[in-house]
């Protein structure tokens, strides 16, 4: 909310003298007086923010200017602050049309009679503050007509002074903007519902992946009861997927800032190092991830899972800000000197900082200001929940989220947390690598199946089951890697790919590119969200789709059926050169 210049500054501005000196005004000069609808379409330069008259009084009504005031469709009113309670002393006919009152019902009353129980008290306080300080003000306020019907009023109020600077009158103009406000609110509601739909679709996809791991491994456990070790491994995998499903629900609770955090002492350096492999996979090969970690970083008391999710959300934003690729740096540091603590408006103490720096498109000041608002997004598609979740987690952890950005200059996002005390030991976490299976059995397998899925557990579940059935299996996490493997190893009998995968290529695009090179290649698709499927075309009509969560027995049957449909090669005994 902004108001016009204060009285002293206003009266020191150059005058715009009119009517041979009978009246003058101080031009707005582009200064905004508030947040109301602007009929000019811009802040304005030449219109008056306040005026000054040499002959007070409302008796002279025989000139062209009075006729213009009565002919305009813009409702206008004048009040007299020198009388008790600042009553209305003049209204034009458009004001009466707008409010549906008669003139005798309006004159002598304070403007507050237009207010009602649903009028925002904060807006009323803004008007009163401007009146007390003799400033111009513009607001959107909910007012009431004579019959009790509400309307949204774009209200402008400005002071009128005499030659000595004494306040004589208040002038106001109104505009009914009810239709615009309703349209805006409907649009915002539609945006929120669309964002909720996108969020639901994304969660449904992730949950179906986890359910696939759970149901598939339990099915394998049932069929492997004679092999205690295999049953144990399958059940353990199902339990791990169940735990991940529980963590997934925390994303929604994090957005609502109502999640139950489980903070413990952790070192941000250790967390970044152990999480770095996952980050590299998520960012893709176009993004160059650099780590700049301060040795001896003190520990913080944080929920490790939510810290990982927050870091991942920020890095995904950095990746999306650089569609052509680039460098992203994750850095840590310490704030403990008085000047830096004051510069960040922090309470005295020591703080650990983790920041993500990109050299992407950057954000305008308006976007930076709204970046953590729920459902605000500049992406298409996008939910606008990523930074809102991060902000909620950081606040619940007694930290501070800061965003520095400018168009074309990139973005730096800092998460600042109070330290927990003495440094926690650092360590290098190790995660299981996703390697190709080149065992003797795989090499001698009769048929080769390529499994493509960005989810490691889903990918390994399908691959493990297919290997037990005697297939040679190649696994990869992206469409780009799958095409490289096709070029490198050539002989693939079936492509089994997830449809929804992060990055530049989804499963349908992969299938089309693969069939351009191998027209007779059978393709089996999998998805947890059927609405993501485009309308069937000639290329996709011949592809079978498994809906997650599927039974591994159904996968085996679809693989067998798809391989039978393949056009046989001309080489004898099914032999192919693997090259």
From TrEMBL:
Keywords: Kinase, Phosphoprotein, Transferase. The keyword rRNA-binding does not apply. Residues 1-43 are annotated as: Disordered. Residues 61-134 form the PAS domain. It is an enzyme of class 2 (transferase). The modification 4-aspartylphosphate is found at residue 498. It catalyses: ATP + protein L-histidine = ADP + protein N-phospho-L-histidine. Residues 1-16 have a biased composition (Basic and acidic residues). Signal peptide: none annotated. GO terms for molecular function: kinase activity. It holds the Pfam family HisKA. Residues 135-189 form the PAC domain. Its EC number is 2.7.13.3. InterPro entries: CheY-like_superfamily (IPR011006), HATPase_C_sf (IPR036890), HATPase_dom (IPR003594), His_kinase_dom (IPR005467), HisK_dim/P_dom (IPR003661), HisK_dim/P_sf (IPR036097), PAC (IPR001610), PAS (IPR000014). SMART domains: HATPase_c, HisKA, PAC, REC. It comes from the Bacteria. Residues 448-563 form the Response regulatory domain. Residues 202-421 form the Histidine kinase domain. This is histidine kinase.
